[in-house]
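Supplementary Note 2. Why include the ligand at all?

Several targets in our set were suspected to adopt different conformations when bound, so apo predictions alone were not considered sufficient. For every target with a known small-molecule partner we therefore ran a joint prediction. The input for magnesium ion is given below.
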Amino acid sequence: MPAAFHPFTFDNSYVRDLETLCVRWQPSPSPRPQLLRLNADLAQTLGADPAALSSPEGVALFAGNALPEGADPVAQAYAGHQFGGFSPQLGDGRALLLGEVINRHGQRRDIAFKGSGQTPFSRRGDGKCALGPALREYLIGETMHALGIPTTRALAVVATGEMVRRERALPGAILTRVAASHVRVGTFEFVAAHRHTDDLKRLADYVIARHDPDLAEHPHPYLALLEAVAKRQAALVARWLGVGFIHGVMNTDNMALSGETIDYGPCAFLESYHPRTVFSSIDAQGRYAYGRQAAMAQWNLARFAETLLPLIDTDMEKAIADATAVIDAFPEIHQQHWLTVMRAKLGLDDRGDPAADHQLADDFLTCLQRGRRDFTLSFRTLNTLAAGELVAPDNPLLAVGSDFHDWQHRWQARQPERNPALLDAMNHANPWLIPRNHQVEIALEAAVDRNDMAPFEHLLKAIQSPFDANPQHLPYTEPAPADVTASYQTFCGT
Ligand code: AMP
Ligand code: MG
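The joint prediction is reproduced in C-alpha cell form.
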C-alpha cells in the first residue's frame, strides 16, 4: 500500500460540532482530470507544498478521485431567500466541504469542492460546474484578494474530462475553494425553519467561536453577533462600491457571516458609471444593481436577525426591538465606511466636514454618470491630478463637458495640499486595472473553446497587481467597447 497522501493537516470542526447540519458524502470521480491551475501562493499559506499538489496525487485529490488523509467530506445544509422568495431547502447541491485546516497565520480555513457531483441537496441539478464559471470564480476571487477586499479564494481548478450539459455541452470542472467558513445567512435560515432552538444555539455558538471569539463572554452574545456580522457586511459592501464591483446574486445563501465575498456567479465590474448597472441575466428587475447592494445587504441582515430572535431574548417583543435597532443602524455604519473609502479615493484626509465630503463624492459620481465616464479610469485620473502631474487632454474625464472642471475646483479647494500619505492611499484605493468584462470573456472563451489557458494566465497576472501602472498591462486597462457593455450579460454559475 502506498503511503496515504497527506498534503494538509485537517481538523474538521463543522462535522464534529454540527453533525445534524450536514450529510457525509463522497465526490463523484472525474474520468480524465487535468490540473489547469493551482494557486501556489494560497497552497503555501495553507501549509501545503505546491509541488505535491501538482503531482498526480494532487490532481487526483482536486479531481475528487482520491481523498487526502484527514478529509471528511460533507454537504452542508442551508436555506435561503433567492430574489426575495424563501426556499427552505437549498444546501450544497454541487459542493462538498472536504474539511478545515489551520493556515500559517493560525486561521481556520474551509477547503471545499464546487462541481464535485450530485448530493442529497442537488434537487434537479447535475451537481456539476462548467469550466468557464470555475475559471471566472478563480479570476475574480484573486482580483478581490489583490484589491485587499475580503474574499474566498480558489486553490485549484481541474477540468474533469467530462462534458456537462448546459445550453450547449461544455467542459466540466471542479473548483477547490478556500473560505474563512461557508456559514451563510441561509445556514441560520435552514436551522430556524427546520430545527430546534438547541441547534440554533449550537450553530450561533459555533460561529461566535470561529469568527467572533471575543463575544463568547459578552452579556448579550447573540445580539452582539448580529451586530458584528452587520458591521462586516457594511464594510464589505463599501469596499465593493469603491472598486465598482457588482456581486449580481446577493441572495441570503450567498452572504457569508465571515464577511468574505462569496459565490462569484453573475458578478462583474462597472465600466461607465451608473448606479442602476446590472449585468446578471437573471436579475431583470435590477434587485442587485450596483447602487442597491447596501440596501440588499441590510435586507439580508434582517432575515438573519429574524432567525436569531429566540436567542436574543426570551421576551419576543424585546428581542424584536433589540434586533431592529441593529438593522436600523446599518445604513449609518455603511455610510461611514463608504465615506472612508471615498475619502481615500479622492485623496482627502478625515478632518473635513463628513456631510460636505459625502456631497463632494456624490457629485463626482454624478459627473461620471452624466458623461458616461469610465468608473475605474476616472478615479485613477484623480491620482495623476492630485500628484500635480499632467493629464493627457484627451483623457475622458477632461474631454467631455465642463462639469468636471467645476467639481475639480471644489475638490482642490477642499484640500490644496496632499501629503505623500494621502497620495499613497489614493494609489491603493483607485486601481489602475480591474478585470474588464470583455477581457474576462476572451480569457474564458480561449480556455473553454480551445483549451488555451494563455489568455487566462496573462489576465490573471495583470489583475494580481491592480494598483501598479505597468505598461505591459496597458491593453487590459481599456474599457470595453460601449456596444459590448450594453449587451453584456453574466450568467449564474450553474
Ligand atoms: P448558486 O446560485 O450557485 O448560489 O446556487 C444556489 C443553489 O442551487 C445552491 O443550493 C446550489 O447548490 C444549487 N445548485 C446550483 N447549481 C447546481 C447544479 N448544477 N447542481 C445541483 N445544484 C446546484
Ligand atoms: Mg451559492
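Residues 13-185 form one domain. The mean pLDDT is 95. Comparable summaries for the other entries are listed in the accompanying table.
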